[in-house]
Batch of 3 targets.
Target 1
Amino acid sequence: MKKILFWVIAGAAALATLSCQKEGADSFNGSDVKEVTTNFVLNVASAQGTKQDATTVQQNSNFRGIQDAYLYTHVTGMDGIPYVASAAAPAAGRVKEFNLGTLYAAGGINNSGDANEKSSSKRVVQLSLPLSSDAVLFYGKAINASPGSATGKTLANYSSTPADVEFSVCRRIGTDDDLKDYNATARLMIYLINDILSASVGYDADGDYGYAPLPALTWKDLGAQYEYNNGLYGNRFGMSGEKVALDPLEEILGNAYSTLTYIKDGEYRAGSSNAIKWMLQDMAKVVRNVESATPNTLKEANAKRLAIAIDDLAEDYFLDGFVYKSVPTIRGIIDEAVWSDANTGFVGARDLNDYPYGDFGIPEGAAQLAFNANTGKFSYLNPNKPLVNQANGTFDPRKYVYPSELFYYVNSPIRTTGNNSLTVENYPNGWAKWMDGTLWDGWTTPGKVLAETRGVAVRDNIRYGTALLKTSVTFGATTLYDNREAMTNGAEGPKAITASESGIQLKGILVGGVCARYGWQYIRKYETSTNPGAAQGYDFSKFDGVIYDDQIVYASIPTTTGSETYTLVYDNYDSSLGAAAQSSVFVALEFANTGGDFWGKDNLIRSGATFYLVAELVNDETHQNSISWPSDHQIPPVYLEGDTIPTGKALGQSKQIPRVFIQDFMTTATFSIGPESLKKAYFSMPDLRSTQMSLGLSVNLKWEPGYTYSVTL
């Protein structure tokens, strides 16, 4: 069976700085002996050569070292092969914690790919172990000087009580101040847009352009009348009575307002800085045409007057090209009391021209707009109240999280020996030989610490605690077709785009189905009391987070074999599903369109725009049956005390439940952009919890070891 991890930590150094402490008597002959000083040996199996780039996730034959190494020796008293099989606090004297600190330095292992090669991989430390110790838990992570987008970010809390071990996913908008600034930026941006949309002109007795008097007029009134006259959108503005014909310049402005503000059912309307810029550029072309026109009627003169008012408002807030003016400049234009509230204000607003990615690190498409016809205002979809008018929203920007850090883990029985003359050369070398029982002559396996014990070895190799997604993207056709035919109601056929000249570039990968906390087995941790995240607007118990990996190591899409990028993810085992199959996982690929404009699912994808294609990684029976489960170590979840254990299984053994992401496994996904994929391109980031999304990519998935998917996006 091929393994993901085969760094062999086999080497000879002892930790000179580690103190050896004994409790109880020094004699090994008395009944009061509680601990025995031993040579304790660990061996790490690691990937050959895993990122978010290949170096970060150790796929480039590099070893990043292990820091925050914690070892817990347990006295389980189990018959057969003992594992730690309870999350409860062990009784006094039945567990001991060792903080080993930085156990391996970066580059300290020669990872040549030869599983049997001698290297510096073993680690021998002198530890004083409680008598009857028979199993160990080990935790550690790759050395990470700068947690974040490039190397992952996870907050770890270790404990001798398994139930208290916790790995907290780190949100990209992590602090209350970050959220306040995010909301303040959004509120200011949307205030300016709504101010332009609310443009109006009052009664003018003297008149302009040869017509007088000119009545009061709002842009919203023209938009509502235009829709009512043409029977559009279910009369969303609640018009009644006789239809009132619009003169040509009124018609143009009414049509523009309707087009700007109508968001059809199921559409994700993008609200990033770039999306707003393009929206206003389209608006300006229409408005300025009316502004420069010669009116032929009083109503057209009034429409021209309104167009000038609209353009003046835009010039108050934007530079040429619809670049937002600076926050201090805008602060000098508008009265803060008009829009500010107790939670957000100018003080928290950041750069308005690269929202939301630039200052907050979440995907550009995460900013989604809603429009309320009753108020005539846009709002950002967000359930947190500081944002403007979003009571009906469901989007929470804090759900975007960093990839996992690279963690290590083992839950293993031990080997023991009374041999007091062991040297480094006596220990097997390499992950394969480490598991070969015939090479441990004179050792007891499984063993437990006795008064005469002089050597202890962790039976199983230390392995990764997290899972890995390996991604590549290719073109599956030489010609791609957009959604122009559907978007123009058949007036125009689809646009044909040559794949190799399309200018499509990969920017990011988004993986759904992430919960906020993982427990001692690196699987979802359930809360046993009231949800502690409720006051902060999220639920720790749901798989509704999204990993955003923006560290892509290649951009252009090849026509055959794609380059590879790696994302460290969390095991998505969900014990609440019981006997039901584990959930599928939705993945979105984030692309930049550096070619020409094309029509996606709901919107025009402009040149320079970001768009998204979605795939579903299905946990179906075919894939479940293709998993090759390891026979030489356990993969969580394991059977715990209190579980109903089936015949042939034992306490502490793996339940072997198939799912999309499995600890210590690598899921390989090859995404193919097919001829119809662009028709399903989203301009904004869809909700990766939804089962109603249009899937735009074909996906071939492979597990290492042994799990294969084939998915169409």
Target 2
Amino acid sequence: MLLRRVALPAAIFLVTLAIVTSWTIPGDAGRFAPALASLGQNGGIALLWWVGAAGLGLWIDRRWLRAGGEAGDGLGEARERWWRVAAALPMGAAALLSITHALGSLGLLTAAGGVLNWLPIAVGLYLLVRILRDDFGAGPVDRAAEASVWTDTVAPALAAALAALYAAAAASAPEWLWSSEFGGYDAVSYHLELPKEWITAGGAIGPVEGNVYSALPSFVEATFMQLILMRGSIVEGALVCQYWAMGAALATAAATAQLAARVAGDAARPIAGLVLLSLPWALVTGSLAYNDLAPCLFLAGAWLVIERGAGGHDAVDAPSRASRPLDMRHAAALALLAAAAVGAKPTAFLFVALPLLAIVILRRGARVLRLAPLVVAVALAVLSPWLVRNLVAYGNPLFPFAHGVFGNGPWTTEQFTVFAAGHGPDRALADRPALLWSQWLAHGLGAPPAQGEPWFPQWGILPIAGLLGLLLELASDARRRGVAAAALAAIAIALLGWMLATHLKSRFLLPTAVPLALGAAFLAQRAARATQPVVAPLVAALFIPLPFLVYWREPARVFPSQPDTPLAAPAAFIGGAGFRTGEVAARDLAMASTNDERAAILAQAPTAYFINFALSKEARILAVGHATPFYFARPVAWNTVWDRGALDRVADEAPGTPEAWGPRLAALGFTHVLINPTMLARWQASGWLNPQLAPERWIGVFVRANRAIATADGSIIVEIAPAPAPASSAAAPREAAPSSAETEAPQEAAPRPTS
């Protein structure tokens, strides 16, 4: 039995990984071996983090929550022992994120030779081993437990296939997958860039000049810094972070599955887990260094805390409202989970914290409100490192929010206005319900709401199936009516928050996948009563293929080298970080024997090659319009569109005279300027750009007053006159015609920032 349960999923995983890593460019034999090597080396480090989190979660469960006298969960039964680990993961992850963030805020992750960086994980590993030995080594084995080919064989095999897909996507170098995220724009502009800059600056988490996103709580980015330090390489560490996101997806699916078992019985467990794991949005955010899945994990975990103690092993047999009010221990646990969700992604206040408030009131009664002071106190304690460092740096603990209450800090009122416009609704209130339809219920169907926006079904049929299942239970099943009402209330609050306070993008609704997965499980159970033999194949046919199809069509973007045909080669950049850093171009140039070969190599070289290899070590570079410097191995001054950088200040001092900006920049110590006209044009069209930096107003004059020495990826590298020419290298950068770079048309729609 054990061999079948382990060997078959392992075989399915390897076969699926071999298949999906063969989807690459013509002539490539496949990327199976690099993917497997990356999974072992980089994925192994991420696995250590999640195993440590499981240990911390089990300890909190054993010493804190169960010390409150909660009714047993039947955890002595063999079928429940390992699901207890799944239930503990959200609490452990919340604790580990919070501890890491606090240590990083104090600059301790790099202290004592990095010992403190490893210590929380090591403690979690120790606790896990001890608890497994003490609690899992004995106890009755329920051999009569419900079993079937579906639960014992098919569901684990499908989960293994999906896990292989996640592993292949997570092995891809950042900036290739995914089209909906413009190659992971947010990852290389701040989710990964911030940890890189914190490490370079000495290891303390805090505000970074020119990057307003460093003012956010950054719980996940702190963990990314921890993982990068564990890996010992910034570029390779990015893959560890992507595997961490994969772990977050698997943990969220497992916690949601356990929640479904709690409220709907064991038969609902595999349906809910597979439905969530097969959601394309989960695949996208679960294979990029993003923070989106952490709030989903904490929502599922907090809901589990709310449901526990309802009486009996199966909450289906419990009343719709728990038999006793929430105690202080469970309230503190909820506060930790909600605060960690907000610390991971501030919009989780709308999508996790407020929905949890509705769920706990509907499931435990309004008496829980008496514990509000405790919940607020715990949440403030968890978030205090962020609040304190922002107060010290900006005079505003919530910067860049609430400036009307706490003050503007270093920003102008105009900057706050632009930031709010870029991160808030850009449609009239009356138009937002229709946009909700296209971004959620019917996402990817019909024409895209914005021209050039990547458009394919990232939600599949989950919203329809989930809502239908919840509404049917609300109308007809008295035992589950309370759960269905709580799920629908959570969804309604999230949708309202999305329409009123976000920039109306589909990905922000991802936390609704947790209650929707419960609804889909309810619907499948209802169908199984009449047509049980076909339910499992139907679920597999409707949900499982979609993420494979989404991956198969990637990256589905138009590139300058292929203006007529989108390139679809999702596995092409597994093991491809060297192409992004310019190392491959530098190596090929060193081996080239003719000028034609060198010219061909330079024509395809990325911007990072010129920054990392072609310019002299003494060069000091200012990037304007280039907000994704993750692959630059040397310091580059840059800023987001919301911040104001060196060129903004120079333009303010000498408005309307771009020919005079070069000497002023040289006086500040800069020798070169990297200009991305395409991105500046996009920011200008969106209304975010400083008007003085509108491309047509300054780039042509500035380039002519100085000297363009190279172009790459549509960007221009300009040597400031009269700075010395760059030192010679393996091959000189190609000469650029400024006019062609200045008039290059955008190849993709402008990325939308996240918050």
Target 3
Amino acid sequence: MTGKHKSSLLLVLGVIVAVNVAAQMYFGRVDLSEGKIFTLADYSRQVVRELEEKVLVKVYFSEDVGPQYNQNRTYIKDILEDYRAYSNGNFNFEMVNPRDKEAFEQEARQAGIQPVQAQAVENDQISVRLVYMGMSFLSGDKKETLPFLGDVTGLEYTMTSTIRRLTSAELMKVGVIQGHGEPSLAPPMQQNPMMPPAGPTIGTLAEMLRQTYQVEEVTLDAPIDPSIRTLLWVAPQEEVGETELYHLDQFLMAGGNLALALDRYSVDMATRQATPLALGLDEFLAHYGIRIEDKLVADRNCGIVTVRQQSNNPLAMLFGTQMRYPLFMELRSFDDEHPVSRKLESALVAWASPLDTAAFAEARTAGAIVRPLVKSGEYTEVQVGPAFDMEPVQQITPELLDSRFNDGAQVIGATVEGAFPSFFSGRELPEGVDGSTRIDAGAATQLAVVADGEFVTDQYSQQGDNLSLAQNMVDWLSQDEGLIGIRSKAITSRPLAELEAGTRKMIKWLNILGMPVVFVLFGVVRWMARRRRAGLVS
């Protein structure tokens, strides 16, 4: 090797060493994924950057977890390295060595991580083994455990929430109103699978909120704890008394915020009957700019139900027929500028009603800021009671669209912000309440409403982005918008756009005829080129 070549080789080796040294001191990454799912959100960086206590994360990941989980190990290590890099030395992690199997398993169990079954393929045979996939967060004498990391979707949100919960002196409180037939907060894991719950539950939503907040059940028969800044009210079924309205009004006057998921009707799907709910809330909510109309909205963008009908086909009678149900609306029109609805793709609501835009106009005139969050599609049918068409449809034809689904987009969810006078200002107070501390001119408050109470219940909350919409409402009202951006990164619902019949037919024939035509044209061009070359040769 000549001296020139040796110098070039030494130069290349020097550059490689310098790059590796620089990579140890500084790091960078180009994330081309939608939503930057492999890059820490600004809020996550802020949380670890502001840590005042040391946080240690110990990861327990067995060696033989199977191919379906191998990528999870790499992703977890990468995201932990990012947290560490932004923490100013207050965040660290340890990948516990699984080679000493007995010691590893003992430590994992002591950390609160239980083994799970995983499949592995060896020598063309499938075997099932017990593996550990979890992590433990330690800070001082506090400990939090994530017992299973088989699905890393939304892991950044879970980790940031855990770090904040672990290092916060006191969590913000969120109250969930009870006492009027609302869905219970029973956790899903505590429900007996052999015995369905007596009524609807919102256990999944409550469980998610507890990752970030201190969730408490609240009744309105007494003044609301002033340490609670946000209330969530889901699907009350019974009338609300005047004293209860007074306590809610004073909560809002003091600057409290309210998230509402309300039904106008109670629906019995078995009998196809809708019964109006007399809640006594209409005048009260209208005072704050919210009025739910006495109507139901049906949409051609809708969900599917299984209907069992009399039929000559025994399989159809046994398993039922899949039919579209326009009263199960699939909402896709979100306000992309509002923190609550930004980046949401779809939500499924059941027997929803439209919000009265005239009430919005009155609130705006009074100085409030009103913003629609989500609307139905353009092809809707607004049904006016008391008789509703609640039957599924086999097929939504052009004729059906022309005759029924032509009422335009309807507002289903919205937010209202402003300083309102008390609903009871100038009114006689309910008997028995203490009016000595009454507030007549309120501080600025915020309300968020979706005119459907089912979308957050456990039966429907896993549909589309329902759960994200409900959590975003609570986060926004609680002035906790940083978590909304992290949660939005994990949204994966991508509903197909509804196309016109003519467009669908054109795409269909392009798929059928397009490739054959391309090959024929290619053959003709090749044939003409060969003839031209043959003519030149002769």
